[in-house]
Structure formats: C-alpha cells, structure tokens
Amino acid sequence: MAISRRPTTKAETTPDINIDALIAKGGSVPQEIVKEESKAQKTDVAFTLRIPNDICEKLDITRKKPYKTSRQQWVIEAIVQRLAKEEKETE
Length: 91
Known about the structure:
Elements: H1 19-25, H2 31-43, H3 53-63, H4 71-90
C-alpha cells in the first residue's frame, strides 16, 4: 500500500481575539474551590489496607449479597458498626 501525506484542510477561521492579551491576563482559581479542596484534605485520610486473599474473597462474596457495594463502602460500614458496638460496650 502506498503511503501518502495526510490531506491538508483549510485553516479554521478564528474570531478576532487578541490571544496574547488573553494569555497575559491570566486567571486564578475561585476561592470557593480552594476552600472546598482544603476541607476535603483535612477530613479524609487515605491509607493502604492489606488483607489476606481468603478474607478478601469472603468479603467480595458477602458484599454482593442483597446488592453490590464497593469494597471501600463495605469496609467503612463495617468499621462504623464496630465503632458503634464498642461505644455501647463502654457505656
């Protein structure tokens, strides 16, 4: 098969905008977004959880039973339940 150059297309017409002035003007991130991002960073903690394979397989089977739930959501719900149980026992 012969190789040929890609066909050229007509350049799209751009409106009369001073691109350099627009770039020089720059911009900033809205303060609301910055505040929300900093709140999320303070409230969420990320860490790696290593569990044995057989426990993970049991977890996957269990979390799919009335409706499928993500592993993260299932683990968070289990932690919340355990914490509630511990609080009741200490009262």
